[in-house]
Amino acid sequence: MEEIWVEKYRPETLEEVVGQESITERLRSYVRTRNVPNMLFAGPAGVGKTTCAHALSHELYGDSWSDNFTELNASDERGIDVVRDKIKNFARTSPVGDADYKLIFLDESDALTRDAQPALRRTMEMYTNTCRFILSCNYSSNLIDPIQSRCTVFRFSPVDDDAVTERLRLIADEEGVEVTEGGYDALAYVADGDVRRAVNALQAASALGETVDEDTVYETTSTAREEEIEALLENAVAGDFGEAREILDDLLDVKGISGGDLIDQMHRAATEIDADDSTQVRLMDRIGETDYRISTGGDERIQIEAFLAGLATDDARQG
Ligand SMILES: Nc1ncnc2c1ncn2[C@@H]1O[C@H](COP(=O)(O)OP(=O)(O)OP(=O)(O)O)[C@@H](O)[C@H]1O
């Protein structure tokens, strides 16, 4: 079976990480001084948090990186006790080579319950002489202050389209895959700042064995085109519920796109469509409400139709 490209092309050096320059610059300065603090990597999925932790350990430890680096998942259902045992086992042997300490990468640290977090804090303190911790999380606000205050915080942002495209070009060249400029634009749109999603989309689209263009990208990722989403919203806002509903049926039934994904795309498109400020405000408000209803179990089609109907009525258009 073909290797998964996100792993095959995981950067091994900080230099290769795209779109997070200020972070990689600071990490490189730690490598130069060989002085690494406990760190918190916060940010959305697929933007390079795990990758930076791996690359840092490669640059710090060279060939002995795998002896001095370990990766654990805090959301492991067996909980903090297992994590603690694993940390203890790893930390009690001395660092290998000329390393002063080992690195422990704790993924999804914000998945730990508030009750379990003080135990993590104590564990960090207990091994502070032999280990440095890198905690990764999507939302740093889920972590208790005593953990945050013991870490240098790095906020990872969604990666911008140019940087995503740069990475995709390199992978496509290595793999000998032809991609049109429209194909790259579509991949960047689908990725929405998530490099993992971009690389997976490229691999899926290239599996068709053709040149990768807009059509192959939207088809293989089951994503609506930006224009289709804008047309859907513009028709509803203009009061044409029938037309909006036809577009919706095509997206849900023919193209097989999920209602949740459509709402996410509508959220992205809401500020792009041709509408005045107050319409956009109402649009955002209704998108939020519909997203909530779907996430709490409401039927996707009914909720989105109700959303479009609401927009198409006078009260939605005029307040
Ligand atoms: N900034 C980046 N530069 C280059 N490749 C990247 C970058 N971010 C992600 N990737 C690619 O996406 C894959 C997944 O990235 P990574 O594991 O670093 O995500 P993450 O931010 O830790 O996400 P999660 O919160 O889901 O764990 C990597 O193996 C790599 O191929």
TrEMBL record:
<dbReference type="InterPro" id="IPR003959">
    <property type="entry name" value="ATPase_AAA_core"/>
</dbReference>
<feature type="domain" description="AAA+ ATPase">
    <location>
        <begin position="35"/>
        <end position="160"/>
    </location>
</feature>
<dbReference type="InterPro" id="IPR003593">
    <property type="entry name" value="AAA+_ATPase"/>
</dbReference>
<dbReference type="InterPro" id="IPR023748">
    <property type="entry name" value="Rep_factor-C_ssu_arc"/>
</dbReference>
<dbReference type="GO" id="GO:0016887">
    <property type="term" value="F:ATP hydrolysis activity"/>
</dbReference>
<comment type="function">
    <text>Part of the RFC clamp loader complex which loads the PCNA sliding clamp onto DNA.</text>
</comment>
<dbReference type="InterPro" id="IPR047854">
    <property type="entry name" value="RFC_lid"/>
</dbReference>
<dbReference type="GO" id="GO:0003677">
    <property type="term" value="F:DNA binding"/>
</dbReference>
<dbReference type="InterPro" id="IPR050238">
    <property type="entry name" value="DNA_Rep/Repair_Clamp_Loader"/>
</dbReference>
<dbReference type="GO" id="GO:0005524">
    <property type="term" value="F:ATP binding"/>
</dbReference>
<dbReference type="GO" id="GO:0005663">
    <property type="term" value="C:DNA replication factor C complex"/>
</dbReference>
<dbReference type="InterPro" id="IPR027417">
    <property type="entry name" value="P-loop_NTPase"/>
</dbReference>
<dbReference type="InterPro" id="IPR013748">
    <property type="entry name" value="Rep_factorC_C"/>
</dbReference>
<dbReference type="InterPro" id="IPR008921">
    <property type="entry name" value="DNA_pol3_clamp-load_cplx_C"/>
</dbReference>
<keyword id="KW-0547">Nucleotide-binding</keyword>
<keyword id="KW-0235">DNA replication</keyword>
<keyword id="KW-0067">ATP-binding</keyword>
<dbReference type="GO" id="GO:0006281">
    <property type="term" value="P:DNA repair"/>
</dbReference>
<protein>
    <recommendedName>
        <fullName>Replication factor C small subunit</fullName>
    </recommendedName>
</protein>
<dbReference type="Pfam" id="PF00004">
    <property type="entry name" value="AAA"/>
</dbReference>
<dbReference type="GO" id="GO:0003689">
    <property type="term" value="F:DNA clamp loader activity"/>
</dbReference>
<comment type="similarity">
    <text>Belongs to the activator 1 small subunits family. RfcS subfamily.</text>
</comment>
<dbReference type="Pfam" id="PF08542">
    <property type="entry name" value="Rep_fac_C"/>
</dbReference>
<comment type="subunit">
    <text>Heteromultimer composed of small subunits (RfcS) and large subunits (RfcL).</text>
</comment>
<dbReference type="GO" id="GO:0006261">
    <property type="term" value="P:DNA-templated DNA replication"/>
</dbReference>
<feature type="binding site">
    <location>
        <begin position="43"/>
        <end position="50"/>
    </location>
    <ligand>
        <name>ATP</name>
    </ligand>
</feature>
